[in-house]
Amino acid sequence: MKTLVLLAFLVCANCDPFDEDTFKIFITGSKGKITKKKLTTKKNVGYLDISFSTVEAIEPDSFCALPNLKTLYINGNDHFPKITKQLFQCTPKLFYVTIDAYEKANQELDRDAFTGLKDLNFLRLNDINIGRIGKDMFVGVDLEYLNLVSCKISEIDNDAFSTMSRLKELHLGHNLIKTFKPGTFQNLPKLTELMLNKNKIEEIQWDQWNPLPSLKSLDFGDNPLVVCNITKIKEFFPNIHYCNLADSFSAKQQAAFIEESKKLNLTLRFVDYYR
Ligand SMILES: *[C@@H]1O[C@H](CO)[C@@H](O)[C@H](O)[C@H]1NC(C)=O
Ligand SMILES: *[C@@H]1O[C@H](CO)[C@@H](O)[C@H](O)[C@H]1NC(C)=O
C-alpha cells in the first residue's frame, strides 16, 4: 500500500490571504491513513489542504498536531472518512473551512462538528447530505460567510441563523427549499448577499420574511417563482440594488416589474442559469 505523502512548504507572502508566515501542508493524490504522528511537525502549520486523495481513515486526534490551524480544505476526495467533532478538539484558531465532497461520495459529517469554534468565520460545506439546517450546527460559532450549496436541504429551522448576527453572505443554492418558517431571517442585520438559486421556491411569501436592512443582492435564479411584489422587496430590503427573479414570469409581468423597479433604484434580472 502506498503511504500518505506529506509536503510542507514555506509560504510566500502573496499566496495565502490569511497567513503570511505559516507553513502549509498539502495532501493531494495520496492514499492511506491520516494520524497525528504523520501530521506532526515542529513548524507552525496554519493551512491544511487534503484534496483528490483516497484517505482511508483519519485518527480523531490527528489535527491535534496542528494547534495553529486556521485554514482547512477537504476537497474532492474519494470516500473521505466521517468528519467528526473530535477532529476539531484541538484547533481553536480555525478561521476558514471548505469541505467540498465528491458528489457521489456520500460524505458523512457530525452536525455539531464545528460547534464551539469561536474564531470560525468562513464555512463552506458542499455536496454533503445535511437535509435540515438547525441551530444545533452553529452553537458557539459566529460566521460571516456560510455556504451550504448542494446539501439536499429541504428544511430550515426558524432559529437556525438566530446566533449569526455577523453573517454577511449566505449561499443556499442547489437545494430543495420551498418555503421558510416565519422568523428564519430575523437576526441578520449585516446580511448583504443571499443566494437561493436552484431551489423550489414558487412564491415570495412575505409572512415568512423579516426585514434585512443590509441586503444588497438577492438571487432566486432557477426557482419556479411566479409570485412576487417588487414594492415589497424594496420595503423589506431597503438597500437592495440587485435581484434575480428567475425566468418563470410572463414577458408582460417582467415588463411591469421592470417599470416598477426603475422607481426603486433596483436592478432586476430574470435569469435561469440551468435552463
Ligand atoms: C405590493 O406591495 C405594496 C406595498 O406593501 C402594496 O401596497 C401593493 O398593494 C402590493 N401589490 C400587490 C399587487 O399585491
Ligand atoms: C441607487 O443605488 C446605487 C447602488 O446601486 C447607489 O449608489 C445610489 O446612491 C442609489 N441612488 C439613489 C437615488 O438611491
Automatic annotation (TrEMBL):
<dbReference type="InterPro" id="IPR032675">
    <property type="entry name" value="LRR_dom_sf"/>
</dbReference>
<keyword id="KW-0677">Repeat</keyword>
<keyword id="KW-0433">Leucine-rich repeat</keyword>
<dbReference type="InterPro" id="IPR001611">
    <property type="entry name" value="Leu-rich_rpt"/>
</dbReference>
<dbReference type="Pfam" id="PF13855">
    <property type="entry name" value="LRR_8"/>
</dbReference>
<feature type="signal peptide">
    <location>
        <begin position="1"/>
        <end position="15"/>
    </location>
</feature>
<dbReference type="InterPro" id="IPR003591">
    <property type="entry name" value="Leu-rich_rpt_typical-subtyp"/>
</dbReference>
<keyword id="KW-0732">Signal</keyword>
<protein>
    <submittedName>
        <fullName>Uncharacterized protein</fullName>
    </submittedName>
</protein>
